[in-house]
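Example record

The entry below shows one chain as it appears in the dataset: sequence first, then structure tokens.
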Amino acid sequence: MKPRVNHLLMCTLLFTSSIMYAGKHSHPKKHHKAHEHGVGKLNLVSEGDQVIVELEVPAHDIVGFEYQPKTPEQQSKVAAAMAYLKVAKSNLELPAAAQCHPHKEPKVEANLSAKAHAEFQMTYHFTCKNISQLTFLKVLGFKQFTGMKKLKAQALVHEAPFVGTLTPDTPQLGLRK
């Protein structure tokens, strides 16, 4: 039986990374749910041979708008984005030496509605034959979606937390201390 990534581990990742980030970047907090165009979030956690990667990116950065598609061109943009994002290997790169392969269909949602600040949310599940070689995660989607300018990344791998900011020029998060 393969171990499953549990919710306690994910909460630990988020809590630890939030504390680390807050410690480095202390300033008054703004309480709102609005996102910043060009800025998304990436979370990665591993347990045993399992890896889960979650991305949350403003819809504007992916398709250029944040509402229910109204024209055939907008519908086509959403369909093309969904097709691209549903192929984990087209959006993410893990080291070949780790021998990671998707083990379930990625969950991709486009929360486009009449509300403002709609987002694309993606969850990718991998099984790695050589998890000790999981030394980086590279986001390939920056090339496909030029509106995506920055991903605030946090990870818990090999029981160590990692925090970083990924950009089109630095799309890789190192996962080694």
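Notes for this example: Confidence is low (pLDDT under 50) at residues 1-32. Helices lie at 7-24, 59-63, 72-85, 88-91, 141-144.
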